[in-house]
Amino acid sequence: MDNQTLIYALYLMSGLLGLTLITIWILIYRTKKQTDMIQKSEAYRDASNELEERAYCFKHKHEHAIGICAVCEVGLCEDCQKDYETLHFCPQHFNTYTESEWLDITEVKTTPDNPEKGLFIYDMKNKLYKENNIPCFVMTHYKIDVHGDQIESHIKLYVRLNDVEKVRASVNINQDSSDPEELQ
């Protein structure tokens, strides 16, 4: 075999190796993309099921929900929804709300530039209720900042007064904390 044939053979082999590597990369990429799509579709399906459950009353399955409970977030029909000021409750949590003293344990101010800043409060609320069975609710107050020409949202998490220390211990919260990093 002469040198020119050997060079052509090396070029051909390096080209085939390159094509093989590209093919492997494409297969890995497509597999990862399909896995991501499956995970997203499962998350979408879970969220869709949760929303569908809230679309109907938790007690009267044939009745469309007109609201959700501020504490347990179940769907409520007109007969089941109990209102107090601007909050909606299921019958059980209406009694809990009216028979208890409540304290806001954290507050976050958000603006149109940083609305995601308050999401940790909703996550904390869900964790406290779903994992620790501690009744709590989130309330948002809106203020207009005339000088900055924007609306501020003040998001607060409320817990029963007798649960405050247990909550602070379980989420490592300072009394006046509004920093998500301090609430972990």
Description:
The structure is a single chain. It is built from 4 helices and 7 strands. The chain has 184 residues and is an alpha+beta fold. The strands form 3 sheets. The protein has a 3-stranded antiparallel beta sheet, covered by helices on one side. Mean pLDDT is 84; it is low at 174-184.
Quick overview of this protein structure:
The chain contains four helices and seven strands. Helices cover 45% and strands 22% of the residues.
| Helix and strand pattern | HEEEEHEHEEH
User: In which order are the strands of the major sheet placed?
Assistant: 5-7-6
Largest sheet: 3 strands, antiparallel
C-alpha geometry: elongated
Q: What integer value in Å does the Rg equal? A: 27 Å
The overall pLDDT average reads: 84
Extract low-pLDDT stretches: 174-184
Ends apart, CA distance between termini = 70 Å
Number of helices: 4
Helix content: 40-55%
Strand content: 15-25%
Which class do the helix and strand fractions yield?
A: alpha+beta
Give the strand tally: 7
